Fold this protein.
Amino acid sequence: MTSTENTGVKTIESSKSVRLGFWLFLFCELLLIGGMLIVFALNKLDFTAEFRTESLQLSPILGAFNTFLLITGTSMFALSVISLKKEKKYLSIFLQFLAIIFAVWFLLNRWLELNSLWLAGFSLSDEKFLQKVPGEILFFKFFYAMNLVHIVHVFATVLIVKLASFQIIRNRITSESYDKIQGAGVFYHIVTIMWLFFYPLFYLLA
């Protein structure tokens, strides 16, 4: 076997290892999401009335708009992969830029909403809030914790998409190797699906 063949074999093995690691990572992500949803559902059975009462403090309209932002963003990224496959490099980069814009817009909306809740006295450090019944406090503990996890994932999505765009600009990813950014698209989809579970659980509970 020549050195060229050895290099080819090592490249294939490395690619397989990366893909295996990526799918293992996604599996762990699904376990994390599933675990949070199960724990939330079990506690909801014990504090159904309290959870519904505190759900009224959230805006379903804002939640629906955030859902629109993530669905649109992940759609833009999916279209960018298709564009790159068809050798439309600059269209692909533009669509990825839009995907980043929608994700950042989502993050901005989340920050504004959380900030308004804190100012309204729903902060976990607010003394009046801590005087509420345990079920009402528990609802917002879940809300803040699960949203923090999701916000971190959205922020990671922005960084991943930016990295993919730079790789395309530098021609390190081309129409022949477009599959290298499909993993980023899958991650974006999972982050969107995560929100599709969170939205009805928190915003439409009442």
